[in-house]
Amino acid sequence: MTIAIETIGLTKSFGETRAVDGIDLRIRHGSVYGLLGPNGAGKTTTIRILATLLKPDSGTASVLGHDVVRQAAAVRQKVSLTGQYASVDEDLTGHENLVLVGRLVGLRWSQAKERASELLDAFGLADAAKRQVRAYSGGMRRRIDIAASLVATPEVLFLDEPTSGLDPRSRNQVWDIVRAIAAQGATVLLTTQYLEEADRLAERLAVIDKGRLLAEGTSRELKASVGGSAIHVRLKRPEQQAEAKDLITKTLGNGILPSSSAATVSARIADTGQAAEILTALAHRGIAVGEFTLGSPSLDDVFFALTGHAAVEAPEDDP
Amino acid sequence: MTSDAIPSPGSGDAIGRILSIRNRPRDPGALSAVLTLAWRAMLKIKHVPFQLFDVTAFPIMFTLLFTFLFGGALEGSPRAYVQYLVPGILVQTVVFLTVYTGVGLNTDITKGLFDRFRSLPMWQPAPVLGALAGDLFRYSLASAIVLVVGLILGFRPRGGPAGVLLAVALIIVFGLCLSWLWIIIGMLVKSPESVMTTSFLFLMPLTFASDIFVKISTMPAWLQVIVGHNPVTRLATASRGLIHGQDVGSDILWVLVASAAIVAVAAPVAMRMYHRER
């Protein structure tokens, strides 16, 4: 196994805050790797250190065998970063932005223009090529931003929250793009607050909270570490959630998992017999059940089990 | 995914084809990077011509306003005063415009564009120098406008075109050097608006406590000391001298030394801050 990215004991503080507090990562070459954690967990700081934008306070980090501090220029040769905010010039057109990056990575004018057009075609932005980025939708901005990161084919691509703030349709488009990039053998390190996103894209995940790495593995491994299977109950009347939680806690002894919305209750169970018990108890108490599913724990469950709080504050139903 | 009216991203195949081209080229040379970023600055002007408003409207306004407002009182007539004023207004115009270097830089930082620049394998001072190259155009344009308005109002440079060109060149050199101070401020403060406010805190006294509008001999003695040591006074005196064909060698030298001193101190500080993490 070739390692593309490795960090050992990485730390970084901003004033009193330890943004990154001893993170060890080993990321396989050619894989999609997810850094999963809530806002302020230290994901962005980690990715900025790896992209040579920040210097770590202690610990080491290397990308493709190059130290990110001592051999920063060599690292910049091989990586691309797509930041949280579209790092393109809003005043320029999509085409001009890509030509600009093309020139700055060393392409000749003619090559840069050709590459810009190719990328705009591939990203479905050909029609918007001559419009200022200012006029782009959120999804289009994200695509032009990712396209800008691919002007020179990177060996390692850093994507910082590539889908935050996007509508589901644009998010799916970005997912398709990430998969296409990964299929070409590039190593992709992405950060996300969305467990579903990490689950769908990343081969392996690191769960980060308050600058520390809490768990690492495939999403299957992480789910297995929580153990058992789970039931998810959607209530017809959300106001009964507290009552339902009480009842289920009493029935099982423990095992309540964080709810992903005000109308659901999730719980870990040891066997399917307990599921039947819960259903009976709920019916007995007059709590109407809209939907009842039995499955393995979700990454939300994993995150809660590891951190004691939900991944995203103010959880909402994902469409 | 179904795609309808909204353009959808191309197939994964198309992106795959793009990426299969292993085109990591050689790093761009320093000059090529600077020129590319200067090209960007010109594109911004092309797309947002409104940003030239400051460059065009203010010089016209200031020249007209001060000529007719003070002309009679200070020199007997607007036409007499405009001979004194135009070289000074050139200075004031360019010196005010230097603020936009800091504002533009701060905008690039807050928008995340500098993250992209800093993660590219190019000569790292290029974005700053490219911005300065764009400023060169703005300063030249603003200077030309002041001169044209002045000529219409009766301004007649006795030093001829050569004197005027030299004066403009000297003012622009000073402006480009002064910009480094606002580049530092652009990296220190949080928003483009604060760059503006902070810089004008320095610029207002710097331009008004000078002999741009009024002869130094008319001021109280204590103010003459302050005004006499203001680099803007030296620059205005040197420009007037060049434009009207007087010998101002010592003032020119003084301005050049001051410009060099500003860059010698501010540029290394600015570049250190630029490399420093944010």
Account of the 3D structure:
- The complex is a heterodimer of chains A (319) and B (278).
- Chain A has 11 helices and 14 strands.
- Chain A has helices at 43-50, 72-78, 94-104, 109-122, 138-149, 168-183, 195-201, 219-226, 241-252, 272-285, 299-307; strands at residues 3-14, 17-28, 32-36, 58-63, 66-67, 79-82, 156-160, 187-192, 204-209, 212-217, 229-235, 256-257, 264-269, 289-295.
- In chain A, the strands form 3 sheets. Chain A has a 6-stranded mixed beta sheet, sandwiched between helices.
- The longest helix of chain A is centred in the middle third of the chain and has 16 residues, at 168-183.
- Chain A starts with a strand and ends in a 12-residue tail after the last helix.
- Chain B has 278 residues and is mainly α.
- Chain B has 12 helices and no strands.
- The longest helix of chain B is centred in the middle third of the chain and has 29 residues, at 160-188.
- Chain B is elongated and about 75 Å long.
- The chains are: A alpha/beta (319), B mainly alpha (278).
- At the A-B interface, helix 2, strand 6, helix 3, helix 4 and helix 5 of A face helix 1, helix 2 and helix 6 of B.
